[in-house]
Amino acid sequence: MLENSIWFKYNGDRSIRATLAEFYKCDTAMISNNEVELYNILKKNMTKRELKLYVLQVAGLDDAAIQKEMGIDDEKVLEKLKHTSNRKLRQDKIRQSVKTAEGVVDEDDEDFEEMGE
Question: Is 42 inside any structural domain?
Answer without folding.
Answer: yes
